[in-house]
Amino acid sequence: MGSLAALAWIWPMLVSLVVGVVQAAAPPPQRLLKTAWRAYLRQFVQQDGRVIDHGAGSISTSEGQAYAMLRAVWMGDRQRFDVFRRWTRDNLQSGDHGRLPAWKWGPREDGSWGVLDENPAADADQWIAYALLLAASRWEEGDYRRQALQMLDQIWEREVAFLGDAPVMLPGPWARDQDPLKLNPSYFLTFAWRTFAREDPGHPWGALLDTAYVLLEQVMQEERLPPDWMFVDVQSAEILDSASSGLGDCRFGYEAFRLSWNLAADVLWYDEQRARRLLVNLAALGTHWLQEGWIPAEMTCEAAPLVDYEYLGLYGALLPAWSLCRPEDLRLLYEKEIATSWRSGSWGNPSDYYSQNWVWFGLALWEGLALPPKGLP
């Protein structure tokens, strides 16, 4: 990557060479999705359904379990879905399907294994509820839907706060009493909230969706990239400048890149024009990529590089977004960054479960394997 950046002036000539070589060898995306699923099960999943993050001391997280449940339902693998669901219930939810799961599980100081942090994480909680509704739709199983509704009630009661009359999704119950509110834009799963609104009409999920887009339009104005974290004054509902308020830098990194996938899903599945307008900001990353040959893993919200390395998961999440906002560069992005990084069942670093997931999700949404629930029992 560094050599490409240093020799940016020859990048246009390298592009044509890369296209010619990779087009002849690049595996079809649909085949990659199936092969990667089998490889993921071998590399990261225990027989009992525990998903292991090898890069973080072999811990398991509610996020990892949620991602596995999503992948299982989109792959039509009900047996694995049930195994993931069971392990999550028994180990993260204290045996109660309706309880919000603890976010972190792993080795304790005394040598035993168990919950390391009881706090729920709202992104994982929403993804699990959404995966259950997907499963209820695909396999016509009412028990999945009942569990999802129990979790949605807990999510609303514990992980939604109000800015005046406007509901907003928190990163977890721990953030409820903070002022300013610390929010994570990548937790705004607007596409999922549409399904939640249909299946759980007792809570105003549609209002939550509107609040999210108001906040996103503000924080991403003037073509800014979305931040990993944003801060909102509880009384005025104004977004605070994090740097001048001493709250930290405005950084687009490992959290925020997921928002490109969320927005793309809302456009592809629901033709949401607010999401389409926001994707234009992420299209600007292509300018750096074409000129320099890479995109920094972390940037300021004004798109200035903060690090001198890239991250494969970012490229994966950008695939469906660029299919909408930068289609002329989409095929090259796939061939240069995704296809060429495939080695023996993994993309890039084989122990990086986070990257493996987001490349897979990007391909699945782009190729039409990832779809919303159509109907529920």
Write the layout of secondary structure elements.
Elements: H1 2-6, H2 11-25, H3 29-44, E1 60-61, H4 62-75, H5 78-92, E2 104-107, E3 113-117, H6 122-139, H7 142-159, E4 160-163, E5 166-169, E6 181-183, H8 190-199, H9 205-219, E7 230-232, E8 251-252, H10 258-270, H11 273-283, H12 285-292, E9 299-300, H13 312-325, H14 330-338, E10 342-343, E11 346-347, H15 353-367
Helix pairs in contact: 3-15, 4-5, 4-6, 6-7, 8-9, 10-11, 10-13, 10-15, 11-13, 13-14, 13-15
Describe the overall structure.
The protein is mostly helical. The chain has a domain at 46-159: Glycosyltransferase. The protein is 52% helix and 9% strand. The chain has helices at residues 2-6, 11-25, 29-44, 62-75, 78-92, 122-139, 142-159, 190-199, 205-219, 258-270, 273-283, 285-292, 312-325, 330-338, 353-367; strands at residues 60-61, 104-107, 113-117, 160-163, 166-169, 181-183, 230-232, 251-252, 299-300, 342-343, 346-347. A three-stranded antiparallel sheet has the order 1-2-3. α10 packs parallel to α13 (312-325). The protein is globular and about 50 Å long.
